[in-house]
Design a protein that fits this description.
Elements: E1 3-4, H1 15-27, H2 37-57, E2 64-67, H3 70-85, E3 89-92, H4 98-110, E4 114-117, H5 128-135, E5 142-145, H6 159-168, E6 172-176, E7 195-199, E8 210-214, H7 240-255, H8 257-278, E9 283-284, E10 298-303, H9 307-319, E11 322-323, H10 339-344, H11 347-350, E12 353-358, H12 365-380
Parallel strand pairs: 1-11, 3-4, 3-5, 5-6, 6-7
Antiparallel strand pairs: 2-8, 7-8, 9-10, 10-12
Helix pairs in contact: 1-7, 2-7, 3-4, 8-12, 9-12
Amino acid sequence: MNVYFDNAATTPLRKEVIKTISRVMEECFGNPSSTHSFGRTAKTYIETARKGIASLLNALPQEIIFTSGGTESDNMILSCAVKDLNVKTIISSPIEHHAVIHALDALKKNQKINVRYLKLDAQGNIDLNDLEESLKIDNSKKLVSLMHVNNEIGNILNLHEVGNLCHNNNALFHTDAVQGVGHYLFDLKNLPVDFLSSASHKYHGPKGIGFSFVRKNSGLEPFIYGGAQERGLRAGTESVHNIVGMHEALDISHKKLEVEKKQILFLKNHFIKGLIEIFPNVHFNGNSSENNLSTYTLLNVALPIDEKKASLLDFHLDLKGIACSKGSACQSGSSQGSHVLNHIQNQKIKKMSSLRFSFSSFNNIDEVDYVLETLKEFVTQ
């Protein structure tokens, strides 16, 4: 059996999305910037998708800027905030995605901005008192960048609470919502967020396409220079078929959200119960086992396996056709391990073998049972 439990890394495309992308590629090859009928048709496809995505998020169409995905969206917002909005201090957390962490490193080195990382509790939740103190530490222009759903441990940030705290202290708020969009509903008109990042392939859409939400009259200037595409912020010929495919994927995800959430949560809870039966001393990293505090799509677990066996676990699971992640997918292959887990685990837990299992509606109960049985056989053989 082949089991794909790495949906936090990327998700399979829905069949409907594949059909839509294929149709658009056949029907619409014109350059959206061309003024003839072929170009106008392509432009119509793009603007219809933009309006559709904006409607799903209760945003204005002009506030949706298409990008190549979450990494570019994060980089664009952070860099432009410093370049165009006179931001001198960026407040973040040490367990953000590397698209944020490494961008902040570069801005600190090249632009001499101040970067302040917030304190975390043992589960990886930010200290709101530390955030409030950081916002008041001086009079510099500040941007807070905190992810909505952590991609490794699944912790959910209260966007309303953090956003209100930022705005009450005259700070801008950016959230990396790559793991949230498509799995939760967003009301951006009433959410105190200035900027948001998203990627299509996290909710059964195509790779290489995403969007930034940039609130109207933000003051951002071009990030990529060239033509006047994307309200002049991001030059370059648009990927029409991917943009339409992203809209299709998000629309379907919203329509099926409650049904699929119930299905996925059932699988996650069944998996948690099975793991506890096999490993009485199992440890769940972050808030990932707490349904009211973490996303329903992800579970990060530290298994009490001896060091010799732990070194073979990844290989064994792969041999059995099971795909999961030893931390974030962007960290796989790194000898340093997960920067997220390194920040929140004590020395005892660090010696355990940590794995991230992430689920989608494409999964079923038989796959969960197969993984549980495989783990049981591994520790008893």
